[in-house]
Amino acid sequence: MLNSIFLLNSRGDSLFCRNFRNEDKAQPEQYWQEVQSTEGKCGPVFECGGYNYISLNTGGIYYVIASNGLNGSPSHFVEMLIAVNRIISDFCGGS
């Protein structure tokens, strides 16, 4: 189940954050600390602090989905992130 979606810039600042459930909220800072501790070598899907993080890094922007369960397919979430990336690129005039 999708809990949160957020966008971070290359410094870890939150550009957009939306929590969809009223449970414990996944924090962008928790994701960014994990990325920094592995020096950016963590995979696009990993678990940290009880959340599964699925991410896509395109053009210096990190598109991240946080899920707290195993009832979602990581490939489905990656496809969703690609679609969000495509929509934002079209809206902002990116290539």
From TrEMBL:
<protein>
    <recommendedName>
        <fullName>Beta-lactamase-related domain-containing protein</fullName>
    </recommendedName>
</protein>
<dbReference type="InterPro" id="IPR011012">
    <property type="entry name" value="Longin-like_dom_sf"/>
</dbReference>
